[in-house]
Amino acid sequence: MPRYLRSFPTTIVLTGLLLSSPMISMGAAQLTERTSPSQKQSNQPDSKEVSDLLNQAKSQANQLTTDATEMESFTRSNLAWETQASKINAIKGDVNAVSQTVAKLKDEESMASAWQKMAIARIQPLLRELVTNTTAVIEHLNKDRGRNLQSQEHKDMLKMNADLSSDLATVIGDFVDYGNTKNKFYALQHKLELSEGGASH
What we know:
By secondary structure, the protein is an all-alpha fold. It has a single domain (46-200), classed as Alpha-catenin/vinculin-like (Four Helix Bundle (Hemerythrin (Met), subunit A), Up-down Bundle), CATH 1.20.120. Helix content is 82%, strand content 0%. It is built from eight helices and no strands. The chain is elongated, with a radius of gyration of 21 Å.
């Protein structure tokens, strides 16, 4: 086996990640059940720790999108199998990094505000699907050893990975932007209230 694929046995890295990260193995019904009651706590302020982790996840998801999009572009060229194996190694690292950050978000969820809880709930199913598809790409590369790099199945799998990565980055980025805009709005509101208070005197 080439040295590129030898470094990430699928059952240890990605499947192991599924077992060790509750937020990935959790079913959709459980997600709804767990997040709905907590979302009623609309008065809970934003958690700085959660905001920082969302920013971290945004950066990681953007890197993941870059790598997944680049790998998808390989389907329009005749690059060697080793090149794709090297790139999926990078994508594996990206997925694991995002997964670890989302696991930390789950640990901080009880301290999150309503929109932050919503962000965590929206991220999880996308990440779960991405892990599944990335695992399938790795297994496909391991199985075919470069014999079907130009097959439609392989192209579809890489296109799906690029699309899922982009969707994940967009969702995380939108929530981060919402949090930043919300904070700017409240800061401006506070500033205007102080100005009005000063003027009344």
